[in-house]
Design goal:
TIM Barrel, EC 5.1.3.1, zinc, binds zinc ion, binds D-xylitol-5-phosphate, D-ribulose-phosphate 3-epimerase activity, alpha/beta, single chain, eight-stranded parallel β-sheet, manganese
C-alpha cells in the first residue's frame, strides 16, 4: 500500500510545530526523520532531542533514517524517543543481524537503507527479517538533489525477490522525488515514498500530498 513519508529535513525549523500540524491535516501516514552524524555523511542534521520533543505533538509514524556510523549505539534511545521504524545503513554497521533483533525486541519495525553503489547482495540473507528496504535515489547527506533513475533496477529486483520468496518488506525510495520522478518509483514497485523539498517546500503542502495520492491511483 502506498505511503508518503515527508522528510522533516526540508521543513522550516523555526515553525516546526506548525509544519507538523500541516502534515497531520494533510493526513500523511509517515514522517521521515533524517539523522546525520557528519561522519557517515558529510552533513549534520538533528538528533534525539528533536525526535523526542516533536513526539508529543503528533501520532504520525516516525520513520527514522539513521545516517550515522554504528547505529547500534543508539537503538534504545531512539526507541525511547518515539521512533516507530528504525532504518539503518548496511554500510554503517557490522552487526546487522543482531541489530535487527534488537530493533524488534524494542517494539520498532526494522529497515535497512542502501546507498546508490551498494548492491542488494549485501542484505540478501537479511531480507526475510526486514519490514522495509530503503533504496537511496541520491547520495545520502543532503536534500534537494537529482533523482537517480538507475536505482529503479534495485527496486525491481527487490520486488522480484519478495515475490519469489514470499517476503513481506515494504520498498521505500528516498531522494529527488517530485511529481515526475514519483511515477517512475511506482512503476518500478516502490510503495513508501520519501519526499523532502517536493512536499515541505511546496506552497501548499496538502495540495502536493493530494497530487501524489492521485498519481498513486493511476
Ligand atoms: C538525504 C535524505 C533524504 C532527503 C530527501 O540524505 O536521506 O531523506 O531529506 O530530500 P529530497 O526529497 O529533497 O531529495
Ligand atoms: Zn532520508
Amino acid at each position: 500500500m502506498y505511503k508518503l513519508s515527508p522528510s522533516l529535513l526540508a521543513a522550516d525549523f523555526g515553525i516546526l510545530k506548525q509544519q507538523l500540524e500541516e502534515l497531520d491535516k494533510a493526513n500523511v501516514p509517515y514522517l521521515h526523520l533524517d539523522i546525520m552524524d557528519g561522519v557517515f555523511v558529510p552533513n549534520l542534521s538533528f538528533g534525539l532531542a528533536v525526535v523526542q520533543s516533536i513526539r508529543k505533538y503528533t501520532k504520525i509514524i516516525f520513520d527514522v533514517h539513521l545516517m550515522i556510523i554504528e547505529p547500534e549505539r543508539y537503538v534504545e534511545q531512539f526507541a525511547k524517543a518515539g521512533a516507530d521504524i528504525f532504518c539503518f545503513h548496511i554500510e554503517a554497521t557490522e552487526n546487522a543481524k543482531e541489530l535487527i533483533a534488537k530493533i524488534k525486541d524494542l517494539g520498532m519495525k526494522a529497515a535497512i537503507a542502501l546507498k546508490p553503489a551498494t548492491p542488494i547482495s549485501t542484505i540478501e540473507e537479511l531480507l526475510p527479517e526486514l519490514d522495509m528496504v530503503l533504496v537511496m535515489t541520491v547520495e545520502p547527506g543532503f536534500g534537494g538533489q537529482k533523482f537517480m533513475q538507475d536505482q529503479m533496477e534495485k527496486v525491481k529486483d527487490l520486488v522480484k525477490l519478495r515475490k519469489e520468496n514470499n517476503y513481506n518488506y515494504d520498498i521505500e525510495v528516498d531522494g529527488g522525488v517530485n511529481p515526475e520522478t514519483i511515477k517512475t518509483c511506482f512503476a518500478a514497485g516502490a510503495n513508501v515514498i520519501v519526499a523532502g523539498s517536493a512536499v515541505m517546500g511546496a506552497k501548499d503542502i496538502s495540495a502536493r500530498v493530494k497530487e501524489f495520492a492521485e498519481i498513486a491511483k493511476d
